[in-house]
Amino acid sequence: MRSALRSPIGLASVVLLGFLLALAVFAPLLWGDRAAAIDTDALQQGPSSAHLLGTDSLGRDIFYRVLVATRLTIGLALLATVIGVVTGLLLGSAPTVLPRWAGRIVTSAVNIAVAFPGLLLALFFAVIFGTGTVGAVLAIAFAITPSFARLTQTLTASVSGRDFIAAARVCGVGRFRLLLRHVLPNIAEPLVINATLAAGSALTAFAGLSFLGIGVQAPSYDWGRLLGEGLNRIYVTPAPALGPAVAVVLAGLAFNLFGEAAASVAGHRQQSTPGPRPVNEATVDTSEGGLLTVRNLRVAFPGNNGWITPVRGVSFTVHNGEMIGVVGESGSGKSLTALAVSRLVEHPGVVTADRLEFAGKPLRSTSDRELGTSLAMVFQDPMTSFNPTRRIGRQIAEVSEVHQGMSREAAFRKAVDRLRAVRIPEPERKARQYPHEFSGGMRQRVVIAMGLMGEPRLVIADEPTTALDVTVQREVLRLLARVRKERSAAVLLISHDITVVAQTCDRVLVMYAGRIVEELPTDELFTSARHPYTTALLAAVPDMETDRDAPLAVIPGRPPEPGEIEAGCPFAPRCPLADERCRSEEPELTALTDGHRVACWRSEKELMDATAGGAA
Ligand SMILES: Nc1ncnc2c1ncn2[C@@H]1O[C@H](COP(=O)(O)OP(=O)(O)OP(=O)(O)O)[C@@H](O)[C@H]1O
């Protein structure tokens, strides 16, 4: 409001609106009697000092009638707006809470209704509901509804992709609660602005219906009705029509200018707010049965020319208390793998697997409650993992309220305790602050604290330190290591930085083009890595002995897009060792030694040679 008042348009609209609202409240009290007083000696007079806008056919003062009509005109316009906006909001958010088929029907109906001009809809409903005030209010309300429903759908869709919604989902927050707590507060601003603009349109539309005789009926009167009466004698004396006409224009202008000023303030603020960022992840394979068992995991999406499969048969196992790193270039399928094991891949994505088990149970049949408390996710950009409109403490507490049935107070106390556990200074005070009041590193620690509200057995951290400086990065990694040690939780750390993984993890999974190409213990990474892709990744890491005058080592070429993977090893076009077989047949992930697997024809040949040599 303060920002809006600083602009001339905002100031003018607020003054005008204030004036109109004051008139709406006080005019009927002050001048109601004078506006209703019949004077048979002054019928249909023109403007004079006694009657500024003249009198009507019963000698009533038109100036006072215009002032007194402010209440009914604005009141009815606001009532129609409220009904229209609320109905639009209900229809627009219905697809979020209804089953998919029902949501589609609502969306299609709204799309059809949006195609009709508002005034046409108003006239159509006016005929259905009949002439009169109630009919006109409903007609205008339902004329506003489709555009609001559409706006709500669009805004909801834009918020639904944010990480904090995914985080709330993985915590098992129900659809209604998700809508009320997480979606609506984040789309309220544009909705309110558009409702203000709609109020201006409703006001003029209402005046139009009354003017046409299908709105307010005598003895009640609004500006539209007064305008209609004045128009009958506009060629004799224009003032009786001019008065209500000016009032309609001024009020419509006030609402529209206010909406515009609010929109420009909001737009300005949004430009300086960081937008949502994508997340990423990857995976590898291990022996039978662990905390998380993944076998032949595939994630596919419909593309323009058939299905594309960014994750193509990933298998790995995470054991209790293990810390596993997943590395790979952008687009290798790391994030999708992590989303798949967290049940967060959205329609139209399709997840299939020969085996996908968490804590010994098929992931499909693990309850939201169990998954919400035993699996914690830490995304790359913690800002988008939080709902910006809610205090940190309350957001963290929600996990225990939803899953452990704790009271608000107990859950909040636990949240403060967990903030203390991740070494947030002054946790009581910090719990009452909003996400934007935290630094990046602190937010990341808060996300981890949120995961600790349950009893996490697996923490999936997707590039948790990418946006942080090295000091804070080390703190967050230490915290993850501490969580793992103190709670015996397994950690799946996704990172593009192979050195971070080498320093912190027990095993590393290297992903390329939607598959795991090598898996080995991190202490063997620098000595025994076999896949040319892994060695190229390691060679690209500068160390203290790197010649600072020479150009940094890079891997030539780029990884293939999911839709353009051809026969053969996907790394072959970039591999200096590739031969004919590499270009025609894709190698399987094969065990070299216990705990070391690699998908490369060259390694397999060496292995066979070595075996043959040993046998001889
Ligand atoms: N919803 C989607 N629809 C279609 N394709 C998708 C979708 N999500 C991801 N992809 C594709 O899947 C591939 C793998 O994506 P993913 O996010 O898992 O990669 P990543 O290895 O985590 O990369 P980065 O490190 O850049 O995040 C990408 O090529 C991406 O374009």
Automatic annotation (TrEMBL):
Protein keywords: ATP-binding, Cell membrane, Membrane, Nucleotide-binding, Transmembrane, Transmembrane helix, Transport
Main localization (coarse): membrane
Residues that span the membrane, as ranges: 62-91, 112-144, 192-214, 234-259
Every ABC transmembrane type-1 domain range: 70-259
Keyword rRNA processing included in the entry's annotation: no
Every ABC transporter domain range: 294-538
Entry-linked InterPro entries: AAA+_ATPase (IPR003593), ABC_Ni/Peptide_Import (IPR050388), ABC_transporter-like_ATP-bd (IPR003439), ABC_transporter-like_CS (IPR017871), MetI-like (IPR000515), MetI-like_sf (IPR035906), Oligopep_ABC_C (IPR013563), P-loop_NTPase (IPR027417)
Family per similarity comment: Belongs to the ABC transporter superfamily. Belongs to the binding-protein-dependent transport system permease family.
Protein name: Dipeptide/oligopeptide/nickel ABC transporter permease/ATP-binding protein
Organism: Lentzea indica
